[in-house]
Fold each of these.
Amino acid sequence: MDRLVILEPSNQVAIRIEPSQRCHGELTLRNVMYTMPIAFKLQPMNKSRYTIRPQSGVILPLATLSVEITYILPPNSSLPETFPHSEDLFLLHSVVVPGAMKDASSTLDSIPNDWFATRKKQVFIDSGINVLYVGSSILSYLVSEGSMDEIREVLEKSDPSWHACDSIDTQRQTLLHFAIAQSQPDLVQLLLEFEPDIGAQNQSGCSPLETASGAGEALNVELLLARRARTERSEYSNWGRIHFAAAGGHLEVMRLLLLKGADMDAKTEDGRTALHLAVEEYHRDCAKLLPASGSRPDIRGAHNGDTALHVAAGLGDEGMVKLLLQKGANKDIRNQNGKTAYDVDADYGQTRLYDALKLGNGLSSAARKGEVRSIHRLLENGASFKRFVEKRR
């Protein structure tokens, strides 16, 4: 026999490191003797760094006893000196004690040292105990470093009741938010294996899918959608997933969201649609995709009733104006100030959208541009000067 005590569930004890909390872990010792009680003594080699309760005791035949190991963090530090694996050693002494009391609990931390004197009897010494530091502080650092193997090990060794995969850092970000912000799909996929809360919100009220949509990483978005992440706006977020994608010009992300049923006409907290945002940020491909997918181009914004066409006109974006008109935008809609898209264009000192908005006939267009030959040709072909004057009035 090479030992009297086995360690359960393994010889590794997980010590949880959390801000402003006692750092501790638990180890179970099992007496493998069928008929004899055994005495044990567990000692850290670095006594200033650990406390153990109970440090010694008697375990009845085939019985178990739980030992708590508390770690003392270095001064002014929130993390151990080395992690997640500790280099510290522990010595577990065990010896058969036939005459020990049947009530093992009464002898805890009161075992005479001479019981473990090797000159009296055979003492087993085990130095195989090792420490793995776990907890939110450890995981946040490992995620920032992209340490895939160590992240997996820490998550696997963490108690399921801790929900370690939902750990948050000092900025109130979950591990999933952090991995997404770093554009690491492999790490996102690893975290998703441990079933984190994919609806968790960060300090800004954004879900992981909203963060991924804003970052424009299509693979991360696809991974989250495969886990049934919701496509609608989170309760405390000002924008929804489709809004982040549209404002960022992330065309592939928008396609993925639309395929999963995202509401393309949903409004932000301040009343803008994804189309408003795409137009504002000059993302023509996104502005083209939305009406082609069924988005209504004439939805009014909540602030002043501007449609996407009003926005494009105010920016003087002739190409966007033409695109929206091709997609069915109504140039005659007035906002809450009673102004059409051309009126908004004129308010900004611009008049070059007159033709793009198709507000005049060929004669008026030629006159505005000073094209004398075109004017003569149009008049010769029967263009009405009277109608031109009436339009100008």
Amino acid sequence: MCSVASSGRGPNRGRTRGGTMSRSDLTRLTGSFNGPDCDDDCPNVYRTASGSIVVQGDLSSAFQPPEGEALVEIPEAVLREAVRALGW
């Protein structure tokens, strides 16, 4: 699994790469709500204090993203769990 990474866009661009945000700064939306318990090595979705979303998953090679960005894949069930946790 890849480590937690930001989308590379918006006001938080590069914060995790610079080491200024830790996992404890994030609200975990998946893996412990109505789903199988996962350690920190499962695909997960997190929310930052500013309200942006951070996704942890397997690195994807679907296409080459721009410099400073990464693609990750997560199961649909993980995304659905995150949406439910947010009440959307």
Amino acid sequence: MKVECLILVFVLLVSGVAIKGVRSLGFSPIGVNNPYVREAANFAVREHNKQSGEKLKLKKVIVADNEPLDGNNGIMYRLTLETTHGSYNHYQTFVLIKPWLPSHKLKLQSFYPVHA
């Protein structure tokens, strides 16, 4: 478990550098019923299902944080989700959103199980 956490921290640090040298401004809590949170959560589950072949269904968003990225690089959403129909019930996901674009241009950064 400790090794997985260290790997995740490393990947997140490297991915922050990989996004055009984007500087992180820090995560802040956001309401789980925020429209962008709901959009990001539904998108994350759909994309995960496409990539994995699973048939998860979003039950609810448990915790939501967002982090504006330096410049016009978007807003990173960090969500803890409760799902049904999977091997696990809880997942953490990171979704990048550019809300000022017409399609909101969402990108799934990661999606992995967590122990609740």
